[in-house]
Each structure stands twice: as C-alpha cells, then as structure tokens.
Fold these 2 entries.
Entry 1:
Amino acid sequence: MADNTNLTDDEKHLAKLGYSQELNRSWSGFSNFAISFSIISILAGCFTNFGAGWNNGGPISISWSWPILGVFILIIGFTMSELVSAYPTSGGIYWWASKLGGPAAGFFTGWLNLIGLVAVTAGVSYGCATFIDLTLSTFSEGWADDYSLTRVFVIFLVVLALAALLNIFSSHLMAIMNNVSVWWHVVGAAAIVVILVLVPDQHQSFGYVFTERFNNSGFSEGSTTSFGFWFAIVPFGFLLTQYTITGFDASAHLSEETASASKAAAKGIWRSILYSVIGGYILLLCVVFAVPDGADGNPDNAGVGGGGVAYIFNSSLGQDWATLVLFISASAQFFCATSCMTSASRMTFAFARDGGIPGSGWLRKLTSKRVPANAVVFVAVTAAIVTLPALIEVNVGTEDAPLIVPVAFYAVTSIAVIGLYLAFAIPIWLRWRQGDAFEVGSWNNGRKYKWMNLIAVAEIIVVSLYLMMPFVPGAVPFSDDFSWKFVNYAPIVTLGALLLLTIWWKASAHTWFTGPKHTIDEAVVEAFDA
C-alpha cells in the first residue's frame, strides 16, 4: 500500500487518475473562473464578430439569437462541469473521451480540441491586432491613411509574441493577469455600456432593435421573408454568439493547477458562461441601440454593415469617446489572447504527455518554473501559420463602394468553434451513453444529464454544419463568381484534418496510442482506487 498521508485532496484525486502533481497548483477557484471568463471575453467576440450577426439578419440576429443560443451553450457548460468534477486533469476534454470511450475516442477528441484551441488563439490575437489598429486609426488620421492588411498582420505577430513571452515567464503571473482581466472586463464593459447610454445624441427604438431585419449576405436576393432567410441566412450569424461564448474548457485545462479543482473547475465553467451571456447581451443591446441615423434620417444599416462597431462608435460617440471604447476593447482582447495561449499550451502539454502529438518528448518539457514553454512556442507559431490567408483582401463590393469581408477571420473563428465544440460533443455523448454507471464527482447534474447531454450534442452538430457553409455567394463551388479567395476554409481544415487523422489512426496510431499514460506507479493508482 502506497503512503498517501502527505498528499492534499487534489493530489490524491490526481493520483487516482494516474498522474503525479507536475504543474504548480497555485491557481485559486477565482483564477480558474477568471481564465474562462477572460477567454470568452465579451469585449472581444461581441465586437470582432459583430458583422457576422449584423449582415446575416440585422438587429434581430443579435437581439434574439444571442439569448437563445446562450441558453443552449449554458446547457453544454453544465454537462462539461459534471465531467471536469469527475476528471480534473489538464487534458480535460481529451482525457474524458479516452476514459469513457477508449483510445480512439481520445485520439480524435484530442486533435479536435487542439485544432480548436490553436484556432481560437489565432482568431482572438488577430481580432486584438485589428482593434489595436482601429484604436490608433481613430486617434491618428495619419495612421488611418496608411492602413494595410500587412500592417495588421505584423501587429498580430507582435500580439502572439507578447502573449507567448508572458506565458513562458511564469504560471503564477498568468494567474494574476487573469484576475486583473476579470475586473478589466467587468469594469470596462460597464464603462462602455454607460458611455453608449449617455453620450449619443439619439438612440434607436425598441422596435428597431427587436424587429428590424435585413439581409446583407448576398444570398436569397436580399430576401428577409423567405425560408432561406430564416433557416440559412440568420443561422450564419450564429458565429457571433457561438464564437464569443467559447474557450470555457480552459477551466478544465487548468484544473491541475487549481486548488479544490473538483468543485472550483466545475463552477468555473458554468459561471463563466452564465455571466458572459448576461453581460454580453447587455453590451450588444447597447451597441445596437446606439446605431446612428444616416443622412436620410433612417438607421444607417449599410454604414454599420461595412464599418462594424468601429463605425457605430465613431459616428455616435465622436473621436475621443470612440478611441477610449476601442482602447478598452483592444486591451481586453490582449488579456483574452494571453489566456487562450495558456489554455492551448496546457492542452498541448497534456496531449504530448500521453504521446498523442509528433514531437511529444519536446512539447511536454517543463521549465524550471514548471511551465510548458515549448508547447507555448508551438501554439504561437501554428496560430501564425493558420492565419496567413488574412493577408489576402476580399472585397465583395465594387471599387466605388467596397465591402471588405474578413473571410479569413471568419474562417479561423469557425475552425475554432467547430474544433472545440465537436471535441466537447464526444465526451458529452459518451457520458450520456454510460448512463448511471458514470462515477460522478462532487459537482454533478443528477438525473438531468439524460436530457441535457442530448440537447448539448444536437446543438453542437447543427451549429457546426452551419459554420461550414459559404459566407458569400462567390464561395459557392461552380458558381459564375466563384474564387478561392472567397472560400470559407473551415470545412477544408476540419474535415481534411479528420480525414488525415482517420488514415493515420488506421495505418499506424492505433498500434501505439493507448490513451492517457500514468505518470505514477500503477500500485499507487490501485492504492487510491482501493
């Protein structure tokens, strides 16, 4: 019998799962909640993907879609909270799938999760770079005149580099940064709400915010009454909500560094979702109410469609207030990008610890401060590579009236959503299939899992299918206007990756990948199971 008298409850739980305490357990429950709240970042996703909702349905695509999808995502969060309470490990999603479905389930889940986390790091970092550039352009006319996609991409690389350096420096520093990030998001969002309520000379009506609809997608000939509008165009706008409320699996990935993880990480997941859904909805409604009127005295829907939230801020608030709001948002997005890097690197470390990634020996190495620095570098470099198409300008308008669609950004964020949520769906489904035989942790859903898990999986499948569709008519294969620069490459990356992973698994990986590997003696594991 192994001597476990000197171990904490967290270390005993981890030992029962087969791991020794390698990472530094210096995160509090609040810090664990903070990283998921920071990665969700209502000051990032709500603003950077505002156009996805706005142009695919108009105000109704924001005022109605957000709370409806928010409820579904909260259900997903509850199902994941139950899983992390039972299995609080850094591998999180991948570990749960391996435990419940075997090596194959773990292999595919791990790769989907890793793809999603790298993509979300790329998307948030690029969005941050865009808002840094917008802030400087609003403040300086000279800076605005020299705009280029290359300049934004360079800022993006700087953001990635800074986020990587901060992550490598210290795990404890990251915990402090995430605590600061929570208050920056809370106070910053509150400040923006107050500014949007008090500063504009006029606001739109409730009728406009909750009933106005239009179709700037280019599909269905601009119809807002057809079947296609309600069941194809409006769902394109789901990207706004689904991308913003993602990354909450960070609470699971950081569970090995969190005290009282079985409860703290579980609460970190669902609380970060709930508070973000409420806060994000208030913020978005204030933005839509602040939409300016055009020269004809009607809401300037076209101007917002082309200029996004920056156009609303500049037109309704003036230069000084707009600069402040953009600065608050850009700073929040940097916190978010840094947190994304933390989560992605921990997932990389955990997956490499079990031999699931080529170069695992290098990727699982820790620094003297017990930080997976090599994994951080891997995430940063891969995020930069996957975002290279952002250097290509995509104009779906005319030379006189350009309408630049950030296809690459939407594709990267779609990859993030599809990869992450499909990874979530696998263990959620497997837990439902296991039924009452599942050994729950200290936080669980009781018998409600029977309907919660099914609803969670169905929502993920439906939204993932929508986000694989073309964003603009020019991306439809074999159409007269087809061009590769318009293509949503999310399905190419995700489905292509799944195809390659299937070939890899059948040809080789099934012979050597056995799922999670114990880092402590089997006798110790058996002692804790006794």
Entry 2:
Amino acid sequence: MTAEMLDYLIIGAGPAGLQLAALFERDGRRDYLVLEAADAPGAFFTRFPRHRQLISINKPHTGSDDPELNLRLDWNSLLSDDPALRFTRYTERYFPDADVLVRYLADFAAATGVRVRYRSRVVRVARVADGGFAVTDQTGTTHRARRVVVATGVSEPYVPAIPGIAHAERYDEMPVDPRDFLDQRVLIIGKGNSAFETADALMETTTLIHVAGPSSVRMAWRTHYVGHLRAVNNNFLDTYQLKSANAILDGHVRGIERAADGYRVTFSFSRANEVTKELRYDRVLACTGFRFDPSVFADGCRPTLVINDRFPAQTAQWESVNVPDLFFAGTLSQQRDFKRSTSGFIHGFRYGVRALHRILERRYHDNPWPAEKVDATADAAADAIIERVNRSSALWQQFGVLADVLTVAGTDARYHEEVPVDYLVDAGLDTADHPVEHAFVVTLEYGPQHDQVDPFDISVGRIAQDVAGQAHDAAYLHPVVRHHHRGRVAAVHHLAENLENRWNRPDVHRRPLVAFLDRCLSGTVG
C-alpha cells in the first residue's frame, strides 16, 4: 500500500478523467492521480463505435473567431485555454473517424501534463477505517485517497433478460466486415444508434435485416436528445418505408433458440395483427447499449444503481447517494438528466466536469464559486444576461441543466457562470459576505411539449420568432430567466426565440427583460 494519501483519485483516462485532471493541473492542485487500465488515454474509442464514425459533430468553419461561440459546433474538444487543443484542428470531417479522437486525447494528455498511471487496471475499491478509500490495481498496488472520482464511462454491455440471449452476438464482439454477413437474414435487437449504425453497415451484403425492440424509434431532430437516432445513422429507415426487404419490428423478443437452419426467434408484436410469431434468422446481433460496471466495489462501498441497474444513483453534486466522497464524471453523470440533455456526451459532460471541479473546490477547499461583480440594476443585469446567452457554449449544450446565476444582496450583485440547476437548489450560492436575497437563474431551454410535434410539419401552429408576448410558448431553444426570491421561484420570464440565436433586439428581447428584472428587484412581481 502506498503511504501517500491523495486528495483525489480519478479512475479512467477517457475524456472526463482527462478534463478533470487538466483542471486540477491548471489550478496547481497536483495532489491527485489518474489510474487507467489501458496503455494510452481514450481506450474506449479504440473500439467504439464499431464502424468507426463518430456521431459527434465537428465544424471548423463557423464564420466566427470567438472560441466560446465555436464550441457550440465543436462536440469533441475538451475545455482548455490553449487554442492548439481544439479538436477542429485535427480534421475537417463533420462526423470524424474515432481514431482521430484517440489521437486528440493522447495529445491533450501530453500537452496538459496530467498525472496518469497507465496499465493500472482497478480491481478493488474499498473504504478504509481511518477515512478515505483504498484503490487496488491488478499489480496489487493500493492507492489511498480521500475522494474517488469514477470516470470509466459505461464500460460493460447491457444485456437484456431475454431467454436465449446468449445465442446473440454482442455489439462489442460481432464482426464488422459486411461480407461476413453475405446473403444472411439478420436480426438486430435494439433501436438506438449502435443498432442502426450496424444496420446501415450491413445493408449491402445481407438478404434482409430486421431491427427490433419494444420502444418506438425516436428521432434526435424531434426530441433534441442527441442519443436518440441521428440522421447520420438512419438510412435504414428508407429501406423499410420504401419496402426494400428490411423492416423495423415493434415489440418484444420472447426467446431465441438454436435451430438446424440458424435461429428461431419468438417475437411478440405490439401493433401488428399477429400477436406472436416465430421468425427465422441466420444471425442475431444484440446492440442494446452499455452499463456501468460496479464489480470492483467492495461491500459497504458499492454505489446504489438505478435505471435498470445501468447507472449509479447520484446527488446534485454527482456524488453517490449512499457512498460519501465517491463522485462520478463523464457519461456516468447522465443519470441526473437521462435522455433529457447532453451529459452522456463529450460536448455536454465537459461542462459538467468543470462544474464538478468547482463544486469540489467549494466543498473541500473553501473556494467560492467564481463570480464577476456587476451593478445591481436591471439595465446592468440585462446586459450581462444577454451577452452570455448570445455566446455561451455551456448553456447551449447543457440546456436546462446548467445555468448562469445572477445573485443580488442589497447593492452587491454577482454573476456566476455554469451552475448546475439542481446544485443551486440543493446548496445555494450564499457566502458569509453575500447573503443572497434575489437570484436570477438563466438557462437555455426548449419549449413545453417540444418533442411531441414534428418540427418539419408546417401545418402545426408555431409561435413566430421575435414575438415577446408569446415567448413562453416557443418550442425552439430560447433563454429562460427565473427569479428566485429568498429561496423560492417567484417569477419566470422567457426571451422570444430567434432563428440566429441572437437575443439582443432592443424592443423584442432587451426591453422586456429589463422591465422584468426591474419589477423583480423592486418587489412588484412574484
């Protein structure tokens, strides 16, 4: 066992682990270590996605030289003040090859000087009697730390409880050469991006493909959740709707059996006339997603799991609900906004990691949330809010999850950036010298029921942009300002949506916002 007690031990040198470590390095807080099982960072992306095309966008040509604004269209970069550490410098491909991301992460680790111990696979995490954790790797070396941050991602395949599922070839193990499936009937279980990525790759060589699952196919362009089916993977839908041999089956796989001519699959349809039918396939592929692996945690230290045991349950500080000082970063943090926002992806969780870093600094090192002082007037507050919503990448990417918060205590007003909304409610931003009376919580959000209508259907009534009086019914992403007075929401103001995402028109955006802020500060609203 190592004698040194670290402040932080980070498990995993993927994007989230590197991001947190880089923030520690930037601030000179070097009492940490990253343990990584592989011999290089970003090992997950050396295997996934299996067909190597990322679905995270990359757009070097934006017409803007504002690095903050450009991160709205750069979904792969980690956060850094070094312009050389922008993923957009590595390729111009809109949907890049995963190997480019692996190279980028290696360069990021080297340039930031993060402290990573490679070829150190964690096999056990346990509590120790005198406080903190003991983390042991495969060599028998044990590291001690006051706090552990798990940034391993969802590293284990999620296998649904289907009789005979062992006959299916898993997404992480199946061949990816399309000619391996030549003239075969293939069933793909799952309706997410991995399933449709696989179907698109195999369409040219198979006899037919059925994609099956109990849930409806949900399109990302409609739900605004980027984990739902993306257009880059949806060519298969054409072949189904245009009756080109392939099909999507809505219902449940009830069993898979080996037969002389392949596999017999019992399928229970949700919508077709036949309730249950036996179907024959040459191959069955399981593309059913991934889950968190809790096997390394000792008894008394094992985090509670939720969402079909796929994710650790977390507090508003991304801390285990049952294991104090055990935190989660990266795609694991999506448990807090599961299928609602972007914490499952680099362009979302990079900001979540930065917020976690600030939470740790505030909680353990007595450093307040960073803030800039502004004049405690409605005009100054409106200018600060509009300037941020027009260029912030964090509020744009983590819609509804992160907020800018303007706090007011008498004549002392402070602007805090990128505060998790749930954390604000849970912990507040009060300090000894700044007892908050008013808090204006600024988010970017889609409108109510935005995922219930076809966004391309022009026959559906839609609120016209730049109509201030109807802004609260707008479906498109737009700023929302909530006035918290002495800890409760007293009033809400929506800024009218705008096609160019510029919320600065004097009569439409600024003047109504100033009037709202003035009423809140004067006590005439709420």
